[in-house]
Amino acid sequence: AAATLLRIGGLPTEWFVAFSALGGAAVGFASTRTLGNFIAGLFVFVTRPFQVTDYVKIDNIEGVVEEITFNYTKILTSSNTLVYISNLKILDQNVVNYRYRGAGKPPLYCYYIELGFDHALSTEELEKGFDSVIKQYTEKLPKKPEYALLRTGAFERRYMFYLYVKKPKDIFALQVSFVKDIVAVWEKAKKR
Predict the structure, then answer these.
(1) What integer pLDDT is reported at residue 30 of this predicted model?
(2) Which residues contact 21 (CB under 8 A, 6 or more apart)?
(3) Considering only CA atoms, which of 53, 86, 62, 82 is closest in space to residue 72?
(4) Which of 102, 110, 136, 157 has the fewest CB atoms inside 10 Å of its own CB, making it the most exposed?
(5) How many Å from the N-terminal Cα to the C-terminal Cα in the chain?
């Protein structure tokens, strides 16, 4: 009964207790997330799953790492858009770093593209077309592109193509032109 008699500025003290508890909970939740993000940032700095200028894929976001802070990682995508990913989210995602480990200094980046082709052409005809495209790109790239047959199904054959670059941003244009050239050779061979 004595507590209800206390008033601060004309308001019952229970209101101040309730609002301060609610405010404290809000600050607690916000600081927990901020603290978690900061700790995740420390983890990214210490483990270094990627560095600035690396070409990465984090969940469904792919591009060049522009900046790493304690709170977020900034990625430049092929559409020239900057995407900010919280470091806390990065810990929960699959991260693919395209840095090629077999290379020296400066490092190479190995970008891979999976493509499927129907059985309209024999494997020999198909791979002859691949070889002609790869020959064109061998002079443009620091390491000869490669490909491998992944699997054969009733309706298609799936191949993986490996492209090597020195500058990660080159992947943006390279992936488009390479796929276009492979598809053009395949379509031309089918018409014969």
Answers:
(1) 47
(2) none
(3) 86
(4) 102
(5) 97
Question: Token pair of 133, please?
Answer: 């495209």
Is the bond preceding residue 106 a cis peptide, omega within 30 degrees? yes
- Of the given ranges (1-10, 59-68, 109-118, 154-163), which has the lowest mean pLDDT? 1-10
**Beta strands 82-86; 146-152: pairing state:** unpaired
- Distance (Å, rounded) from C-alpha 110 to C-alpha 85? 23
Q: Token pair of 108, please?
A: 């190479």
Structure-token pair, residue 112: 């891979």
Contact 169, 65 (CB under 8 A): no
Question: Strands of 157-165's sheet, edge to edge?
Answer: 99-100, 108-117, 157-165, 146-152
User: Is 107 within 8 Å of 96 (Cβ atoms)?
Assistant: no
Q: Helix, strand, coil % (nearest 5) of the chain? A: 45, 30, 25
Token digits for 164? Answer: 């090597």
- pLDDT in the model for residue 37: 63
Phi, psi of 33 (to 5 degrees): -65, -45
